[in-house]
């Protein structure tokens, strides 16, 4: 490969996942130099603060995603600790959330789905059925996507594929809810209120939740219980008292550097920060306890900007 022109190596690299590019870069000194070029990596990773261009390849190798397993009665999760009611985490009038996630197929090759963000009146580890529970974001076993915080019946917003990264964002402001998938508006509701159980959802967690009754998107028609997510989540973020604009949502999806910093301003929760929740407190933010994790692995995986989701040893 020492004889290959740089443009040919760049073209080959553009068809490969990052970890395959890394393997190819180790073939010889020529591939190492050419495939370490920042241009080979800027479209694959979210640049860290104050990043140095020639370190993007190294940054790629250090990235990890959260792997969620639905095994057991309740599945795996990251708990948003210190009893953050929905109103504590989000506020009641204006808020936003977004999540990078990838549903993965189970051992049988079929989509399992699961609850990505769930809330209920009792904690995850309490041996009692929570009388109030809601699925804020979840995927059904048929790939149907559900996302809502308002008091209207849920309906499928899109059909997702296993093994693919998706970016989902929700904004709520004074009775108006917008849901975006991969930067595009897919649902708009106006003139409504937060769900009637909102103020009884004293506990939140990422990766599992409860589902019962006539709720849509259950794993089986007669299911009544916890519904753990099977797949990867790279990050889940919450903005309290901030409504992301359509342009900001788009920048979060594309990693557009010109508007990304503005979009991230005011974020009060990030799963990547190990579930640390911050609430407003004069004169500034007060950090609450880090979220507990249950059966969570951090794994090497293709990055969300690569769209295809695969894990690597």
In short:
Residues 1-44 form the F-box domain. With 313 residues, the protein is α+β, with helices and mostly antiparallel strands. The strands form 3 sheets. Strands 1, 3, 8, 9, 10, 14, 15, 16, 17, 19 and 20 form an 11-stranded antiparallel sheet that branches. A 7-stranded antiparallel sheet has the order 7-6-5-4-11-2-18, with no helix packed on it.
Descriptive keywords:
single chain; 313 residues; alpha+beta; Jelly Rolls; 2 domains; 20 strands; globular
Explain what this protein looks like in three dimensions.
By secondary structure, the protein is α+β, with helices and mostly antiparallel strands. It folds into two domains: 57 residues, no CATH class; 248 residues, Sandwich (Jelly Rolls), CATH 2.60.120. 17% of the residues lie in helices and 32% in strands. The chain contains seven helices and 20 strands. Strands 1, 3, 8, 9, 10, 14, 15, 16, 17, 19 and 20 form an eleven-stranded antiparallel β-sheet that branches. Strands 7-6-5-4-11-2-18 form a seven-stranded antiparallel β-sheet, with no helix packed on it. β15 and β16 form a beta hairpin. The two termini are 26 Å apart. About 4% of the residues have low confidence.
């Amino acid at each position: 490969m020492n004889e290959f022109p740089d443009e040919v190596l760049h073209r080959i690299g553009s068809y490969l996942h990052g970890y395959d590019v890394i393997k190819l870069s180790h073939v010889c000194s020529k591939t190492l130099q050419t495939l370490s070029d920042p241009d080979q990596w800027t479209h694959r990773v979210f640049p860290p603060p104050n990043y140095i261009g020639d370190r993007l390849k190294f940054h790629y190798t250090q990235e990890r995603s959260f792997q969620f397993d639905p095994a057991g009665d309740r599945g795996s999760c990251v708990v948003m600790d210190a009893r953050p009611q929905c109103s504590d985490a989000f506020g009641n009038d204006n808020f936003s959330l977004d999540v990078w996630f990838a549903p993965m197929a189970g051992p049988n090759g079929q989509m399992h789905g699961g609850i990505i963000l769930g809330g209920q009146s009792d904690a995850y580890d309490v041996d009692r059925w929570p009388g109030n529970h809601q699925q804020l974001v979840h995927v059904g076993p048929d790939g149907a996507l559900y996302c809502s915080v308002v008091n209207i019946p849920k309906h499928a917003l899109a059909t997702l594929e296993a093994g693919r990264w998706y970016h989902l964002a929700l904004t709520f402001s004074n009775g108006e809810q917008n849901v975006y998938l991969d930067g595009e508006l897919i649902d708009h509701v106006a003139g409504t209120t937060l769900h009637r159980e909102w103020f009884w959802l004293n506990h939140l967690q990422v990766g599992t939740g409860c589902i019962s009754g006539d709720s849509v998107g259950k794993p089986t028609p007669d299911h009544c219980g916890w519904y753990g997510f099977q797949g990867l989540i790279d990050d889940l973020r919450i903005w309290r008292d901030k409504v992301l604009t359509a342009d900001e949502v788009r920048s979060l999806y594309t990693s557009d550097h010109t508007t990304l910093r503005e979009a991230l301003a005011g974020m009060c929760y990030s799963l990547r920060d190990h579930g640390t929740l911050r609430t407003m407190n004069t004169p500034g933010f007060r950090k609450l306890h880090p979220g507990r994790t249950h059966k969570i692995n951090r794994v090497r995986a293709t990055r969300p900007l690569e769209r295809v989701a695969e894990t690597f040893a």
